[in-house]
Amino acid sequence: MNEKDMLQKIKEDAQQVTPPSSLAPDAVEQMLREHAKQKKYQGERPAQETKAPASFEKKKRRYRALTRYGSIAAVFVFALAAMWQSQRISKRSEHDAAPKDSVIFETEESTVKKAKSSDAGQVEIAQTQNANQTEHVQSEGSAQTERTSDTKNSKTQFKESFTYASDTQSIYTALYEQFRQDYVYGDGYSSLPSKGMNAVRSEMEVEEVAPMQMARMDTMDIAGADTGGSGETGADFSGTNLQEAGVDEGDIVKTDGQYIYILRRDLSLAILKADKKEPQLISTTYLGSQAESAIQEMYLDAEKETLYIILSEYITSFENNADIYYTSANRQAKLLTYDISDQKNPVLTGTVTQDGFYETSRKNGPYLYLFTSYHPDIQDTYENSTIMPRINGAEAAAGDVFLPEDLSDSAYLVISSVSTAKPDEIADSKILVSGASNYYVSEENIYITNTKYESGQTYTQITKFHYADGEIIGVAAGAVKGYLNNSFSLNEYEGNLRVVSTYTGDDANIVRDFASNLTGKYYEENWTEHNALYVLDEHLQQIGRIDGLADNETIQSARFFGDTGYFVTFRQTDPLFSVDLSDPSNPRILGELKISGFSSYLHFYGENRLLGIGYEAEESTGRTTGLKLSMFDISDPENVTEISRFTIPGITWCPAIENYKSILVQPEKNLIGFYCDNRYLLFSYDEEKGFVSELIYDFYSDMLTGQAEYDTMRGLYIEDTFYLAGNTFLVSFDMENDFVKAGLLQF
């Protein structure tokens, strides 16, 4: 950004700030005058009644000019601070010089191969070029590379714009200075674990988290996300709710229309033959030791007759340092690939491992992407520290570590890709030194968010990686004000990223901090909650925004579909906002519907319909009073209406609806189902009758209450049979006969 644009930006930001009365021009002028007076005469004798020299009179005139514009200067300080905060993540612009070890992107006509080195992080570029592509050019001191092609429909080019670590020593130094030395020399607090306690949680905590890794996300991302499918037999069956169409996600229950696959808490895989009246257990395969592992999720490739199963494990080792022996424990994720062409005898065909707590995963085409959170062990010396995670048994390369200048967390986010054709190998990996709170994966890009508090304000840092054919490329980083409700607060469309956030306080708080530091006086800050929508371009630069929405309310859910976005805020009522995003630089609110309660889960339900699942609440207090289903008419986004609602009094918390994968929503089959309060509730929707209860199955009726849990239950259908799959049972219902129970298998 040049000087002219920066001054214009400061001016625009300054105009949006309304300082408190204590920071009005007259007040600031008086404050600065008193402050200067105190500084001038502190420790000096009283001034004599003599005429000041001419030079002093000039200084006084300059001082008057300064105080006249004191408040403007204070606001400018705020504007500069706000801009500086949003730019602190180390993002390179297109015109900045990159270090020699930066890698340039791939296109359809070229492939990029990296020669990994844990000491130098050097990169070698190998290309296969067509005749119509120009020679690749690199200049010393810059890895900026330009590619030209006369192919009109060539893919978007992505450039490796991150600066990666040169060696492990530099990573250690950065982490030690930012975190460890505060522990040694500061206030005794450190965010880094000590030796032998490297990221170890209790088995109970992991057991609770394992089946619910996706609970951070609670709404569907686009209409028509693939929740159904058909196998070779053409069978009609349900699939996993997906955040993004075209990007597969793992779950604990899968089906191919003939068999049902269930991951069980005892670390076994159960394969059942689907049958309305007599479902059968075909095989049970044990995957590991219960004392050392926990199930996470699995992927099913019916065409290749393959299952990909993800576990998390404790890894313990006996080590010594200077004749001191200790036990070191770490967590790692393990990906197991099974050939299930013979369902009676699944065969393990590949295994890969990755250090760190398992976070999430995605599958796009023939590649699966693993995300883990790794905590380095930083000791007082580099030699006694454990800096790098191990990926498939080998220490990761320092040249794959993106080390931002502004470190907010000592944890690493490790991303690796695995080709389904080579299930024993890691195709590529990248490591981001930063905490991660949300993950959003589009068909081309991975977005990682991290929340940071600074200068009286919360910010969400966003890091963007492009991925294609197993290769992972860091391309951009940025930040927005506020914190996110979950990963569905982000959505990519036509290269832009739309973000909705909630922020506390106002921008004048930074000005207040400045004034407090200057005068030593306290100025009360504003802690009102507001909401905002931001539009960021492909470089994560802000190109549009709406802020100051719904004071004292927080975002509960969000949905985007094409040029329109919907999000819900709540305090005492449920405003459902609709937003026009057709002009990314000028988003605008189309409508606001206020009703009681709120929706924590949104899903497009056929043409011009939006389903909301959440809670009813008292309008006067905001206290939740029951479970609520709402159907909204969105045919006119400027006038959204609630055309039907169904409430169940007394249910004030239903944890299953916090995990969108546990909810069955199938508009084509007209089914809405989820587990709640020891029952499974199944509804349909009728334009005239509204919500219709199809099934209320009480697990107590079959003495399954101790086996039915919200985080292990899934509802699914195959043809005209509805199934409830649990950790130790499968119940079937006849959909053509009023959902009468047809069969029960316990195993």
Quaternary structure state of the chains depicted:
single chain
Give a short account of the largest sheet: 5 strands, mixed
End-to-end Cα distance? 65 Å
Helical run tally? 7
Q: Output the strand order for the largest sheet.
A: 11-12-16-17-15
Could you say which overall geometry the principal axes of the C-alpha atoms support?
Answer: globular
Summing up helix and strand content along with how strands pair, one would put the structural category as mainly beta
Number of separate strands = 41
* Radius of gyration, whole Å: 29 Å
Notes on the protein architecture:
- This protein is mainly beta and 747 residues long.
- Among the domains are: 3-40 and 56-87, no CATH class; 196-358, no CATH class.
- 13% of the residues lie in helices and 39% in strands.
- The protein has 7 helices and 41 strands.
- The strands form 11 sheets. A 5-stranded mixed β-sheet has the order 11-12-16-17-15, with no helix packed on it.
- Strand 27 and strand 28 form a beta hairpin.
- Helix 1 (3-15) packs across helix 4 and helix 4 (70-87) crosses helix 7 (508-519).
- The chain is globular, with a radius of gyration of 29 Å.
Topology:
Layout: H1 3-15, H2 25-41, H3 54-68, H4 70-87, H5 168-185, H6 203-209, E1 228-229, E2 237-238, E3 253-255, E4 259-264, E5 268-273, E6 280-286, E7 293-301, E8 306-321, E9 324-339, E10 347-355, E11 357-364, E12 367-374, E13 390-391, E14 394-395, E15 401-402, E16 412-419, E17 428-433, E18 438-441, E19 445-454, E20 457-468, E21 471-481, E22 490-493, E23 496-504, H7 508-519, E24 529-536, E25 542-549, E26 554-561, E27 564-570, E28 573-580, E29 588-596, E30 598-604, E31 609-617, E32 624-633, E33 641-649, E34 664-666, E35 671-676, E36 679-686, E37 690-698, E38 714-718, E39 721-725, E40 729-734, E41 740-746
Parallel strand pairs: 15-17
Antiparallel strand pairs: 1-2, 3-4, 4-5, 5-6, 7-8, 8-9, 9-10, 11-12, 12-16, 13-14, 16-17, 18-19, 19-20, 20-21, 22-23, 23-24, 24-25, 26-27, 27-28, 28-29, 30-31, 31-32, 32-33, 34-35, 35-36, 36-37, 38-39, 39-40, 40-41
